[in-house]
């Protein structure tokens, strides 16, 4: 090629790239279509649908069912206390699901904001549902559930830009618009506890628009609706033919809209459809089931001969039990509809397929009426039909049809089996199997499978020319599948939805493992550059790249990922219980009488608060007796709220204490009493203290203790003594006022100096509906107050607490729990349930996702305290034990630098040094708690130099103890001894120091140096890193020299270790870890296990920097694989 031609070629290629780059840049800069664009040339502005006259008005609206809710049986399984290992694994999985959501959401936000869908491969958008931001609206509730608060707020703000009174398509799909848009707005409004009124306003706008689709002579809706014609008041009539799912799956959204707005017209619209369904249910070709096609215009349900619980009919049945729940069981109509349908479904639709391993599973198939009039099974399967397992499980619980839980399990197992049978681990859209007729017919028979394949493909292949094996190979059929008609995977949610429901009902943890395998398979096969994409073929060979279809429907983020996230969530039910206030008491399923109550946003009903305190004082007496565990070292001073002076108080005087977050601006208010009767300043005092003073007076009390004014801030000696007495101050208070809301002392107490959040409510003919607002655990754990170290001890040691939140005031004592939004009729059972189940307890369970039983052992309770406190923030790291000292002094166990010395048998003390030393060894075996972020699971630990490395107090970060800490029997070998070294390097036995204590079990912190006589075991580490370079843990193995017994070490199990500081691969510590040999101090051994602390030597002293556990092939082998006895100085 000549140089001239070469130059021309280069210039042409360069020009091509420049043109393509400019086009791409132009495409990126091109504004996205507006969510107010309409398909109409005659309607160019929002439509006021309320003022569009109805051609066929309703003379009498069907009201919402009233009366007492029926006692619906409990649905959710009683989950026990989760092990730390299981919790860590569950949270790691949940983080992965959340990361997948964030990836797809970010792609949508960047490339398709306010459009219906993002195109995951090309980074564009699609608009098939009216161009009104279907993904954004549909996924609002997922944003709430995943605690993506900033993203949720941004999305809610964006909904203000959407015109829900018009559409960008000429014919609107009423069904899709209802479930994606109206359902999305209402669920977000409910889950956000009515925080955003705009969501209900937008839902009402859309509801008014959709209501016009029912303006037909027989009030049956138009499913593909010419909205422009309706807006211009044109004539319209119901469809001559429609899908049964599209007219029967509107009830939940329209009913909920009536409940929230008090306008019964929406409920009336769908109630008329339900009445038609009930009227014709037993007149169809298969009585009890509804055909795929019906005629709303002629009100005929008996012409079509095809039946299914798959696409086009599915949600019609799904809504029956859910609507029963939504209405509180006040009508039997939806129960009747469900029970009438489930019997013929079991007989004609659910079938057992013939599989190679003979699994006892069910698939929801199709049925049709033959030319002879008989019912013929079509053994087809659909991903859409996988909802049936969850529906049947829910119906089995709420309708007391418990024998059908077995049917539900088999349906769910059927979908799981199809997932796991595919090379990709993902279920196809549709498929066909060979059914077996009776158990004896279900024995695997290859020839019957081949016959099924031939029959299924007879219309597509010339069976004279094709061998069945060729058909199987060409179509990627796995054994048992007669045909895969549609091999796509469209990111559907039905399978994981049913698995999640069944897990919550049965508590079977194996379903979580199944869900994780499904998620990994789906994530790996569908992830694309901008989001996750539907794929063309799930039957491709394992390891082959999937073909992306560049589609991501809204249900991927709105449903599929939501259910994956929820199955790895702690199974709590604390997002807010809805209560009804009737002329007579409402009932919960447990027969507990209670009523909802209105919460005034700007004024607290102090008569109610005083009644709670008085009830506790009179009824609980000794159980909630107020008093200190030890006498105060100095006389107590409090604020006299009547004259705002700081005065000494007598032991007989009742006082309230304030627990709050100071914040950063302290100088203007940090004043102290230098002498008796000093008055507080009239100005400059923080708002929370002003409000607390007002609260004390409103409660009819006089004295308030506040650290800022009641601790001498100027005399360091007195201040230190008073700080050490703070635990007794809170333990001795009549009640503690907790300021949960806001981030500092200037926020004040909601309900006194600022308004509280709006309480969701609705009014009907003879009753009002109120939200109980979130449970205390939910209301408290997300506050800044719950992140601070000092506030934990203040709360746990208090005998009575009034929690002031942005929602309402909660009251808790050791035997009772109350809140403003509930009126509880005295019932000890109710108090017990609330204390144990709803996080309303004065222990660590108040701040956790799960509850902590009041009957936990003393050792487990101490571990809970350490786990909760260690994860909290301290302004001064030197406070790490002072802020926890009150709990340590009250412990039944000896403690040293916060380390519990607890014998294995769970006894409180020991007279034998060997048992004491083993108890100390057990206390040293703490470990960092795994924290989870969107980047993965890892511990975030940093050294706290004020305390020794061998104590959890020597590290900044959350810790806990392994489950063996509570149940481990005596060790097989624990040849370890402990001494304390003083400043003169004199050694004193830790056992003898403890034995000499008289009034406390908290061993004085004499020295950081703990001298330990123990075995050392030489180990090495290999890296086990995440993709972003962080260490999850390390592979640990013996550092054996030539001639030692390598075979003694178990090479395949229990060889992981972790270093507290968790370095990334760029640090010096990481390179030392993987290149050097380390000493592991043996705490104890039992059987084949050795528990080690990893040491880092600095001169003649050692720092504890990690932990490990090794498993050997036989008992005692660790003695012969490089261990040596040594006296170690730990600091």
TrEMBL record:
<keyword id="KW-1015">Disulfide bond</keyword>
<feature type="domain" description="Heterokaryon incompatibility">
    <location>
        <begin position="655"/>
        <end position="794"/>
    </location>
</feature>
<feature type="signal peptide">
    <location>
        <begin position="1"/>
        <end position="27"/>
    </location>
</feature>
<dbReference type="InterPro" id="IPR012341">
    <property type="entry name" value="6hp_glycosidase-like_sf"/>
</dbReference>
<comment type="pathway">
    <text>Protein modification; protein glycosylation.</text>
</comment>
<dbReference type="GO" id="GO:0016020">
    <property type="term" value="C:membrane"/>
</dbReference>
<feature type="active site" description="Proton donor">
    <location>
        <position position="429"/>
    </location>
</feature>
<protein>
    <recommendedName>
        <fullName>alpha-1,2-Mannosidase</fullName>
        <ecNumber>3.2.1.-</ecNumber>
    </recommendedName>
</protein>
<dbReference type="Pfam" id="PF01532">
    <property type="entry name" value="Glyco_hydro_47"/>
</dbReference>
<dbReference type="InterPro" id="IPR010730">
    <property type="entry name" value="HET"/>
</dbReference>
<comment type="similarity">
    <text>Belongs to the glycosyl hydrolase 47 family.</text>
</comment>
<dbReference type="InterPro" id="IPR036026">
    <property type="entry name" value="Seven-hairpin_glycosidases"/>
</dbReference>
<dbReference type="GO" id="GO:0004571">
    <property type="term" value="F:mannosyl-oligosaccharide 1,2-alpha-mannosidase activity"/>
</dbReference>
<dbReference type="GO" id="GO:0036503">
    <property type="term" value="P:ERAD pathway"/>
</dbReference>
<dbReference type="GO" id="GO:0005509">
    <property type="term" value="F:calcium ion binding"/>
</dbReference>
<keyword id="KW-0326">Glycosidase</keyword>
<dbReference type="GO" id="GO:0005975">
    <property type="term" value="P:carbohydrate metabolic process"/>
</dbReference>
<dbReference type="InterPro" id="IPR050749">
    <property type="entry name" value="Glycosyl_Hydrolase_47"/>
</dbReference>
<dbReference type="InterPro" id="IPR001382">
    <property type="entry name" value="Glyco_hydro_47"/>
</dbReference>
<feature type="active site">
    <location>
        <position position="314"/>
    </location>
</feature>
<feature type="disulfide bond">
    <location>
        <begin position="386"/>
        <end position="415"/>
    </location>
</feature>
<dbReference type="GO" id="GO:0005783">
    <property type="term" value="C:endoplasmic reticulum"/>
</dbReference>
<keyword id="KW-0732">Signal</keyword>
<keyword id="KW-0378">Hydrolase</keyword>
<feature type="active site" description="Proton donor">
    <location>
        <position position="176"/>
    </location>
</feature>
<feature type="active site">
    <location>
        <position position="494"/>
    </location>
</feature>
<dbReference type="Pfam" id="PF06985">
    <property type="entry name" value="HET"/>
</dbReference>
């Amino acid at each position: 090629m000549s140089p001239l031609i070469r130059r021309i070629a280069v210039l042409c290629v360069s020009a091509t790239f420049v043109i393509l780059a400019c086009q791409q840049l132009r495409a990126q800069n091109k504004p996205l279509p507006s969510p107010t664009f309409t398909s109409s040339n005659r309607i160019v502005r929002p439509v006021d649908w309320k003022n569009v006259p109805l051609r066929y008005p309703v003379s009498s609206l069907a009201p919402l069912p009233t009366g007492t809710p029926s006692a619906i049986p409990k649905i959710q399984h009683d989950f026990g206390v989760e092990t730390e290992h299981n919790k860590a694994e569950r949270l790691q999985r949940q983080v992965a699901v959340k990361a997948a959501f964030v990836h797809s959401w970010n792609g949508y936000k960047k490339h398709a904001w306010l459009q219906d869908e993002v195109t995951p491969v090309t980074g564009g958008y699609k608009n098939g549902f009216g161009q009104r931001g279907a993904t954004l609206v549909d996924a609002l509730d997922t944003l709430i559930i995943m605690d993506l608060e900033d993203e949720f707020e941004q999305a809610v703000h964006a909904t203000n830009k959407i015109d829900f009174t018009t559409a960008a398509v000429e014919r609107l799909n009423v069904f899709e618009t209802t479930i994606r848009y109206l359902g999305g707005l209402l669920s977000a409004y409910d889950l956000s506890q009515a925080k955003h009124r705009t969501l209900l306003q937008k839902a009402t706008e859309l509801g008014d628009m959709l209501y016009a689709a029912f303006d037909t002579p027989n009030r049956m809706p138009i499913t593909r609706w010419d909205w422009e014609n309706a807006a211009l008041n044109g004539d319209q009539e119901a469809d001559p033919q429609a899908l049964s799912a599209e007219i029967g799956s509107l009830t939940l959204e329209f009913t909920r809209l009536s409940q929230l707005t008090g306008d019964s017209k929406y409920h009336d619209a769908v109630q008329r459809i339900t009445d038609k369904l009930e009227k014709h249910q037993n007149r169809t070709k298969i009585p009890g089931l509804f055909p795929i096609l019906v005629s709303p215009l002629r009100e005929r349900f008996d012409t079509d001969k095809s039946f299914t619980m798959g696409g086009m009919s599915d949600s019609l049945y799904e809504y029956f039990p859910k609507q029963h729940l939504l209405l509180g069981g006040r009508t039997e109509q939806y129960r009747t509809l469900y029970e009438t349908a489930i019997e013929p479904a079991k007989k004609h639709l659910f079938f057992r397929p013939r599989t190679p391993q003979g699994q006892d599973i069910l698939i929801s198939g199709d049925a049709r009426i033959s030319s002879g009039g008989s019912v013929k099974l079509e053994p087809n399967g659909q991903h859409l039909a996988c909802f049936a397992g969850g529906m049947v499980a829910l119906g089995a619980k709420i309708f007391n049809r418990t024998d059908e839980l077995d049917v539900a399990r088999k349906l769910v197992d059927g979908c799981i089996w199809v997932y796991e049978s595919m090379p990709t681990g993902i279920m196809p859209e549709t498929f066909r199997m060979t059914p077996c007729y009776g158990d004896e017919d279900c024995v695997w028979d290859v020839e019957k499978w081949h016959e099924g394949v031939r029959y299924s493909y007879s219309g597509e292949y010339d069976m004279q020319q094709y061998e069945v094996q060729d058909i199987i190979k060409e179509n990627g059929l796995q054994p048992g599948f007669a045909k895969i008609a549609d091999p796509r995977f469209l990111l559907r949610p039905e399978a994981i939805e049913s698995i999640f429901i069944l897990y919550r009902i049965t508590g079977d943890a194996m379903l979580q493992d199944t869900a994780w395998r499904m998620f990994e398979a789906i994530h790996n096969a569908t992830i694309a550059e901008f989001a996750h994409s539907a794929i063309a073929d799930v039957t491709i060979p394992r390891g082959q790249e999937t073909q992306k279809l560049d589609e991501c429907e809204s249900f991927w983020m709105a449903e599929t990922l939501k259910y994956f996230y929820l199955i790895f969530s702690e199974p709590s039910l604390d997002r807010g219980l809805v209560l009804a206030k009737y002329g007579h008491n409402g009932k919960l399923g447990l027969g507990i009488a209670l009523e909802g109550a209105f919460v005034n946003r700007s004024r607290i009903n102090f008569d109610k608060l005083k009644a709670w305190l008085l009830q506790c004082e009179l009824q609980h007496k000794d159980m909630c007796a107020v008093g200190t565990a030890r006498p105060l070292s100095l006389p107590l001073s409090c604020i006299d709220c009547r004259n705002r002076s700081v005065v000494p108080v007598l032991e007989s005087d009742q006082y309230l204490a304030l627990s709050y977050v100071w914040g950063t601006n302290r100088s203007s208010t940090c004043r102290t009493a230098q002498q008796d009767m000093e008055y507080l300043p009239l100005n400059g005092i923080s708002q929370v203290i002003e409000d607390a003073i007002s609260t004390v007076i409103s409660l009819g009390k006089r004295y308030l203790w506040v650290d800022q004014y009641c601790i001498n801030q100027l005399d360091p000696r007195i201040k230190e003594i008073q700080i050490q007495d703070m635990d007794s101050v809170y333990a001795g208070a009549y009640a503690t006022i907790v300021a949960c809301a806001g981030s500092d002392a200037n926020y004040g107490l909601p309900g006194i100096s600022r308004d509280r959040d709006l309480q969701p409510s609705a009014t009907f003919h003879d009753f009002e509906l109120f939200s109980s607002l979130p449970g205390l655990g939910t209301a408290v754990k997300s506050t800044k107050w719950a992140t601070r170290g000092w506030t934990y001890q203040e709360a746990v040691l208090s005998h009575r607490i009034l929690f002031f939140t942005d929602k309402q005031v909660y009251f808790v004592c050791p035997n009772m729990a109350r809140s403003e939004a509930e009126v509880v009729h005295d019932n000890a059972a109710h108090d017990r349930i609330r204390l144990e189940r709803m996080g309303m307890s004065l222990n660590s369970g108040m701040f956790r996702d799960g509850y902590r039983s009041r009957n936990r052992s003393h050792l487990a309770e101490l571990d809970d305290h350490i786990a909760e406190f260690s994860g909290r923030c301290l302004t001064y790291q030197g406070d790490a034990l002072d802020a926890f000292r009150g709990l340590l002094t009250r412990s039944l166990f000896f403690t040293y630098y916060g380390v519990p010395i607890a014998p294995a048998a769970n006894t409180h003390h020991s007279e034998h040094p060997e048992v004491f030393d083993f108890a100390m060894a057990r206390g040293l075996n703490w470990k960092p708690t795994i924290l989870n972020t969107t980047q993965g699971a890892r511990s975030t630990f940093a050294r706290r130099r004020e305390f020794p490395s061998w104590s959890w107090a020597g590290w900044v970060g959350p810790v806990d103890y392994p489950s063996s800490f509570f149940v481990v029997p005596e060790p097989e070998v624990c040849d370890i001894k402990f001494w304390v070294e003083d400043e003169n390097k004199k050694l004193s036995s830790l056992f003898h120091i403890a034995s000499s204590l008289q009034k406390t079990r908290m061993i004085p912190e004499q020295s950081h140096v703990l001298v330990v006589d123990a075995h050392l075991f030489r180990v090495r580490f290999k890296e086990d890193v995440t993709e972003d370079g962080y260490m999850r843990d390390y592979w640990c193995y013996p550092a054996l020299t030539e001639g030692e017994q390598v075979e003694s070490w178990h090479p395949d199990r229990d060889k992981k270790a972790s270093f507290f500081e968790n370095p990334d691969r760029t640090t010096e510590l990481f390179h030392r870890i993987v290149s050097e040999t380390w000493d592991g101090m043996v705490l104890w051994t039992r059987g084949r296990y050795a528990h080690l602390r990893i040491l880092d030597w600095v001169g003649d002293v050692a720092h504890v920097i990690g932990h490990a556990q090794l498993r050997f092939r036989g008992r005692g082998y660790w003695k012969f694989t490089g261990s040596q006895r040594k006296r170690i100085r730990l600091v």
